[in-house]
Design brief:
178 residues, alpha/beta, Alpha/beta knot, 7-stranded parallel sheet, 7 helices, 35% helix, globular
Amino acid sequence: MYKRNAGQLRHEPVNEEEKSKLKKNPIYIICDNILDTYNTGSIFRLADAVAATKVYLCGVTETPPNTRIKKASINTTEWVDWEYCTTTKEAIEKVRQEVLGVQVVVIEQDEKSVPFDKAMYQTPVAFVACNESTGATPDVLEAADLIVEMPMFGVNVSLNVMVSLGIVLYMAVSKLEF
């Protein structure tokens, strides 16, 4: 097992030349009014782990520079491309305009949702991670090509937003070819 200290986890920021050479997968992450800055930072770390092309931060989601986001992201905000959009619907429309044939997948409990492990994912793909308390708004659900959810077997009816995104992302990555 590898043990790393905080300094070994937090790489120096990547310069623009190095950043332009980083491999990117046709994966986009849309943060729908994420309230917790530690979740936002962790989503940047997850975006780096799957080599996502871009993260969209929407609505009340805090944006870098932010010390809590930086700490949780272990500096990945320095090389993961991101953009702020006023609304999640705006981010969905923007990614649809910029990325031909993108599949928009909303992670949410809904009557139209399908089990995340049975879903048919395609690339390019944009995952929408929704607000921790209120979930997705009707206009975001309406804009989705696919709504997925995870089964919950305990007393609690939901998982942390970053954990949910991570589980769904890695299931999708295991089914996709890049």
